[in-house]
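Contributing new records

If you add data, match the layout below exactly. Sequence lines come first and carry their own label; structure lines follow with theirs. Keep one chain per record. Anything else will be rejected by the validation script.
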Amino acid sequence: VKIQKRMLGALSINRQICTLNASFCRRFNLKLDVKKGGFHRQFKSLPKTIKEIKKELKEGEEISANGWIKRLRVHKEFTFADLNDGSCFNPLQIIFDQSIDTKKLNFGSCISVSGSMKRNPNGQNPLELWASSLKILGDGDATNNPLQQRNSQNADFLRENAHLRPRTNYFGALLRIRSEASLSVHRFFSEAQFRYVNTPIITANDCEGGGEAFSVGTRTKNSPKEKQEETWFKSFFGREAYLTVSGQLHGESLASGLGRIYTFGPTFRAEKQSATNRHLSEFWMLEPEFTFGGIDEAIQLSEDLVKHLIRDLRDKCCEDLEFLNKWVDKELLKRLDDTLEAKFERISYDEAINILKKSNEKFVVKPEWGMDLSREHEKYICDTHFKRPVFVSHWPKEIKPFYMKQNEDGRTVACTDLLIPGVGELIGGSAREDNFEKLKGAIDASGANSEGELEWYLDLRRFGSSPHAGFGMGFERFLMFMTGAPNIRDTIPIPVFPGFCKF
């Protein structure tokens, strides 16, 4: 009797919850997702995507779908079409019988189709849409379409025709993963109580001090051509200005008031090495800064971030990652899972040099203390020696920027580079120098403040300096690791690199 009373009580409570949920959902235009245990917002003003349709499939249900034909197979009695709108990897199969005129359909045609869902026990898709009506929204023009069915275009062609490549399976998968990775970045830092900030794209400083920044100005049409080159860079701002190479210095000023911040946006480097498969002239950089912490906290936060992103994308981008694992990099999923399981190695720069010197490898560049590590050195350390991601910390101060905190030994700074298999350097971070005199000395030695450009940066140490640290992660570098893409130009929607700025 007691058990029956408890069950009846539970049923009563469940009914009340269901009534409350229904009222709540109607009021806020939400839908209860029982499988994931939460709500998601319904956008009734928009037509359902194929991803939404497939998620809510019911046999016999009448639906409408929109998209592009990815594959067309014409038989005697039926025509089969794979329809995709970009919302997911796997297409929705459409079946047309002889009552519908499909003669004008081509590969790439944009269509709107309505019909009912029917079960197909023998096919790859458990449910298929049997069409009852068809509307052609855009002709495919298969004769001139460079992305014709079964016509596999090479990667260089698709990079130079970036306006068409999102329609391919490969680039569609990369772009969906990129989108989800961006959202995952914001989720991670939001949960860690970081504030998202926007640092300027046009700036007066070259943060890295490399002198490889793009200058910004305006051309004066009325001035003589011979004088334009002398004046146009300075005329608008009254001084030289650049496209940002990093938001770090501005991020430090924001962290000095908000505590924990991150900036996530485009950065620009006018480097000749941008012509390699690991560099771009325009790319996205993720840069968190936090107060009351140092290099150890930055290292752990970096590892937590990378593992969070991998875990999140493995869960949310299964279809796309499985496709890439099959057709691009057959070791991709194993490598991602191994990275999740691994404890990232931590070594000093001194240890890294000793490992390289003791190896039997014949390096093109002989490793010596005081030099920066080349790609071949990075590859040996993380791909061959440790076979896992490696933090290399405490580098010689002479080869690092002025803002890094000097160690007590007087010869190194409190910084780290995260080397990751297949990619090389993914993250660079450091404790920032919080001592005014040491920072001023480093800036003066670098010549970066010859005209007082960084007095505002020194003010951060003059007025209430605090211990703080941060790092930068090249977003496209991470996507190379996450997707197995062999060229970084594949991981950004519209690539810009030396000799190429077409769109």
